[in-house]
Every structure is written in C-alpha cells, then in structure tokens.
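Quick one: structure for this chain?
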Amino acid sequence: MIAEARSDDPVVLVQDYHFALLPAMIREKLPQATILTFWHIPWPNPESFGICPWRREILQGMLGSTILGFHTRFHCKNFIETVDRYLEARIEHEHSTIAYQEKETLVESYPISIEWPTDAEVAGWSSVAAARQAVIERLGLPENVCLAVGIDRFDYTKGILERLNAVERLLEKWPSWIGRFVFVQVAAPTRTALDEYRSFQERIQHVAQRINERFGRPDYQPVHLLAQHHEHDSVVELFRAADICVVTSLHDGMNLVCKEFVAARDDLRGVLVLSRFAGAARELSEALVVNPYHVEETADALNRAALMPLAEQRERMSSLRSTVREFNVFRWAGRMLADAGRWRLRARIEARVRRHQTG
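Got it. Here's what it folds into:
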C-alpha cells in the first residue's frame, strides 16, 4: 500500500478492527500522510478493554491516525476514556483530540449509512403486493398473515435468540395471533468452524422448533428459520412483503439492516422494531425502540407494531425515510473527507509558520 502512494502526504483510509495496528505503521513510513481510520464495531468502556493483553499496542496503533471515526459519540467517549486510562497522552475533551508522541488525533463520530436506492433500482422492484404474494406462496403462509422479518448473520450479538423469546411471549400473551402472526428469520451462517458459533446455531434451531411445536398447526408454522445466505433482491422482496422488521442487536456499532428496510418501503408502510443498543437507534427515533433483553417489552412492541394504524405507519416511515435518504453513505464519507481536508490545510499552514519562524 505504501508503495502505491504517489506523494509523501497521501490520504489513506483504514477500515475496521482487523487493521488496528496499521495506522501507526503507515505513520512511521509516511509521517505526513492524512490517515482516516473508521472503526465499525462498538468501542467498549475502559474496564472491558482492560481485559485485552495487547491494549497498549492496539491503542498506539490506532493513534497513528489523523482522524479516528466511530459510529456514535458514546463510542468516541469510551475510546478517549480508554486512552486516558492506559496511555500517557494529552487529551482535549472539548475538541475531542488526543495528542500522543507529538501527533494529534481527532476522535469523531460518523454514523455510517447505506446508498439510497436509485430510481432505476426502485423501478426494478416488484410491487409491494406482488412481493408479499410471492413470499406467502413460497413459504406457505396464511393469506391474512402479519409478517415480521429479521435479517442477520448467525451471530450471538444480533439478538436472534432474544427476539425468538419475544415472539414466543407474544403468542402466549395474545393467543389471537396464533395462526396469523409469522416471524421469518434469515440467518446467514458465519464462522461455522468455531464450536461456539455452531453451538449457538443449534440453540437457535432448537428454540425455533420448540415454538413451532408449541404453537404450530398442520397449516401454520409461527417461525420460519431460513439458515442460508440471501441475495440482495431476495432481501428487498422480504422487506417489501413484511409488516414488521425486527432488529434486536445486543450490541451493534450501527446496523444497516434497519436502514435497508426503511429504504425499501417506498409505500410508507411497515413498522421498525429496533434495539436501543444499535447505533442506528440514535438516528431512527421513529422506530419502536426496545431493550432486547426485556422479553416483555419486546413482545409488547411486536403487538403494538402489528396493530399500528396505517396513518401512524405512514407518519413514522416518512420521517425515517427522510433521515436515511439525507444521511446516506455519501454524507458519511463526505464528512470524513471534509474533516481530513481541514486538518491537511491546518497542517500545511502550521508547517509554513514553522519554516518562516526558523528561516
């Protein structure tokens, strides 16, 4: 990568935790580079991070960055407090900057988003009615189904088990939904070589089977677990067919599934049930925001979503779509690059001043 640099001060984008050590390595070879590092997962509090045996090395690597981005202000705060705990650095809390080894790093929040669908893409979608009928026929669902969907990787942080428990509680509290409420969970297998992940998948399958045995009928299955990867078009079809999208992450930097659901609902229908522990909850306040660990609260939110009047659905979805459309992935990238441009300009001005003073 360094060999590809065409100047001694390139702009370099480093993304995610796999490359935590890389910014300092680049800084060593290219001291004048503008290095943008974006961290896609939540940053823990100092006590939790202190468990890591390589905490100093990771922090030192990341502080090679000119700008260090997280999804939320809360993650920025955790990072700054972690540096304060484990490194000798000068921290300007008011300006969210960290000075370490004569280099300064701006720590800023840049909520990531999606690319808003183009008119051509939207024109290629099936109508909502056609998408719904296709899903009903493919899965053998009741015609009058209230359809909730979840789209995730098979990962314990996504709260799949917790949402299944909420579906079970919904059917316990409101038996009138038995035969009409169906939850479809798309769960793409991930890290299947690890025993813990295989065990988690088996547990999810067991819980889904238990709910189906408890509430199912010969012509009705309340939970459909689709444990395979779905292409984007298939996911959009599910989003357009659904009455409810359920995102119950236990800990998520942002979560783009909820934003993709919103983007797919140009009919202004559908309800988003969203975990307060997903970064997106700070932007998408018109969702029904829940604590996924609270089974009762999530079950109540599912019932409220299923009964929500169309006028309220339209009002909420219209506001959600305005937010996601405006704060799209290009705004995310543009804000980082704009900040980088300001820092580069400042650095050049400071360099000229130093040359003038020493000259």
